[in-house]
Amino acid sequence: MIIDDIGLFLCRQYTRLCASINQNNFKLMYLKTFISINFIFWIQFSFLNASSAQEIKLSGKVDTLEIDVDNHKMSMYVSGTGKYTVVLEAGGASSHKCWRTIDTSIAKIARVISYDRPGYLKSEICEKTRDAVTIAKELKQALQKSGYPPPYILVGWSMGGAYARVFCGLYPESVVGLVLVDPTPEEVYARGEKEFPELLAEDSIYMKELLASKNRPGERGENIVFEASMNQARLSDAAHSTPTTLLIAAYGKAPGEFENDPDNPMNRIWVEELIKWAEKRPDLQYKVIKNSGHHIANLRPEVVINAITEMIEQLR
């Protein structure tokens, strides 16, 4: 497919440009890898967005709302009706458009809400710290002000999984289900530094460029507090036991020549750490999607749609 070929080309070019290795900077490399994955899918969705007006026409009414939260406006997109409200949390460096492949189908059985965090697309920049707790509180305010009460089913992809977990921890009485779509694991740093420092180490050029950038405020602000957000997600687990479905992509976490190799160390560590976390959680079902990369909603949308549908059916 042309779009996928473009994404793979960008991955390979990106990897060549970042050949310089720093043995002691794994964490920065991990962030860089994480961001680059999302950037590639942003490029892919920019092609899809050219037909957005036609998609809306075919899928039915989509309400676009601008909600004032803490003196900045956030954009929300609402469609469908039902007892449950499915709230879609995008990954890092991603907007609500990353859910375009599934939101129409979900809107047939429930209300579905996607939104853009501050600094993405039309959502205004916010000066507050962009950690997971702040993001979860802003989302709760936006849902309340827009008039969409619980019960909620949270769906989080990649870094959005951490934000969804924190939301569940802060508001356990409001959330009846959680679907995590290849969420960012917590312990990849320690394992990577211990097991594959020479393979996964990277210099800090990209992060320095990101932190100095003016045109990616949402991405920049969230990555400044990346580790704090992951720790908040870890701590939030003790505050809720929300029924959870975890979808794990077998590959796609290591851009470059070996992106689609499940045995690539980055891919393998990601999967193993998610399984380790899943086995400690109550009321959690997980599944490794063997023929999908990181963006499961784009590559295998039926898997995500089925997971959300089954969650709704179990709750009825």
Structural commentary:
By secondary structure, the chain is of the alpha/beta class. It has a single domain (about 1-315), classed as Rossmann fold (3-Layer(aba) Sandwich). It is about 45% helix and about 15% strand. The protein has 14 helices and eight strands. Strands 1-2-4-3-5-6-7-8 form an eight-stranded mixed beta sheet, with helices on both faces. Strand 5 (about 150-155), helix 6 and strand 6 form a beta-alpha-beta unit. Helix 1 (about 1-15) packs antiparallel against helix 2, helix 5 (about 130-145) packs across helix 6 (about 160-170) and helix 6 (about 160-170) packs across helix 11. The longest helix is centred in the N-terminal third of the chain and has 23 residues, at about 25-50. It is globular, with a radius of gyration of 18 Å. Residues about 1-35 and about 40-60 have low confidence and may be disordered.
CATH superfamily annotation: Alpha/Beta hydrolase fold, catalytic domain
Rg calculated over all Cα atoms: 18 Å
Number of strands: 8
- Spatial sequence of strands, sheet with the most strands: 1-2-4-3-5-6-7-8
SS-derived structural category: alpha/beta
Provide the low-confidence segments as ranges.
1-35, 39-59
What is the share of helical residues?
A: 40-55%
Distance between the termini: 39 Å
In what range is the share of β-strand residues?
15-25%
User: What CATH first level would be assigned?
Assistant: Alpha Beta
Number of helical regions: 14
Task: Summarize the topology.
Layout: H1 2-17, H2 26-48, H3 52-59, E1 63-69, E2 72-79, E3 85-89, H4 103-106, E4 111-115, H5 132-146, E5 152-157, H6 159-170, E6 175-181, H7 188-195, H8 197-200, H9 205-212, H10 217-224, H11 226-236, E7 244-249, H12 265-278, E8 284-289, H13 296-299, H14 301-315
Parallel strand pairs: 3-4, 3-5, 5-6, 6-7, 7-8
Antiparallel strand pairs: 1-2, 2-4
